[in-house]
Amino acid sequence: MTNYFIYEDVPTALQGDKLFNFAIGDALIREVVRKPDQTLLHFWPIENMIILGMVDTKLPYLSEAVNTLQESNYEVVVRPAGGLAVVADAGILNFSIILAESNEEKMTIDEGYAIMVDVIRQAFAPFGKQIEAYEIVDSYCPGKFDLSIDGKKFAGIAQRRFKNGIGIMIYLSVEGNQQKRGEIIRDFYQVGLKGEETRWHFPDVDPDCMANLSDLLGVSLTVPQVRDIILATYEKEKPVKTGYYNEEILADYTAANQKMIKRNEQIFSKE
């Protein structure tokens, strides 16, 4: 049976690194490849950041679109995982399940997504609302494993894969102004496209199709409370231990961080 370890603190020396949680996510995938008897749980709240996917960098007017985000006091980062633009702020919880796979038992993309869907459904089952998984096409960062209640999306899922290691990531809109988040991403695409047709598909975002988990459940919830609810789901099975950033993890973090810095510099230097 796997052992569970939680990672959520940022080392003091690295607290100023806006790319920390992305780079450490890659490092933790490397760690489970070395130690396949572990499942790692990574909670990573971020404030005032717009996280772009690689497809977003194909917008014909990317520079202008990014400028509008920065003028609204958002940091802008292109992440290594798939998907499109999402908002990260104090009311959003980002959470990753990081697990190993063997050459003999490969996990499909959909099976990876299903693991996260099952965890979230288990965690919030006591609230009595049905959580559905299907694409909300006019949401931001739409995908076929969008999570919704009563037709309103509150979470999206992405994956990051290396050989024999998988990170399944979810953002959960817990509280705050979800309407504004939707408007920000809608406007980002409107400025970035200016009505032009491209070979890539970008969502025509309707802010009304998304909502906060708090509102959908009819309960006042905070990001720390949602983190505790998810963690309790695992602790029903066995205790979750605190994970530590050993030398191997930090070395992998440094390598991943340098790649992300280079990638982001290359993308934005073209603008």
TrEMBL record:
Superkingdom, taxonomy of origin: Bacteria
Function text: Catalyzes the amidotransfer (transamidation) of the octanoyl moiety from octanoyl-GcvH to the lipoyl domain of the E2 subunit of lipoate-dependent enzymes.
Family according to the record: Belongs to the octanoyltransferase LipL family.
UniProt keyword annotation of Acyltransferase present: yes
Protein encoded by which gene: lipL
Name used for this protein in its record: Octanoyl-[GcvH]:protein N-octanoyltransferase
Catalysed transformations (reactions): N(6)-octanoyl-L-lysyl-[glycine-cleavage complex H protein] + L-lysyl-[lipoyl-carrier protein] = N(6)-octanoyl-L-lysyl-[lipoyl-carrier protein] + L-lysyl-[glycine-cleavage complex H protein]
The protein's annotated pathway: Protein modification; protein lipoylation via endogenous pathway; protein N(6)-(lipoyl)lysine from octanoyl-[acyl-carrier-protein]
Molecular function GO terms recorded: ligase activity; lipoyl(octanoyl) transferase activity
Catalytic residues identified in the record: C141
EC assignment: 2.3.1.204
Alphabetical GO biological process terms: lipoate biosynthetic process; protein lipoylation
Native source organism of the sequence: Jeotgalibaca porci
Keywords annotated in UniProt: Acyltransferase, Ligase, Transferase
Residue ranges annotated for the BPL/LPL catalytic domain, each copy included: 35-221
Miscellaneous notes: The reaction proceeds via a thioester-linked acyl-enzyme intermediate.
Lowers pKa of active site Cys (site feature) positions: K153
HAMAP family reported in the protein's UniProt record: LipL
One Pfam family in the UniProt entry: LplA-B_cat
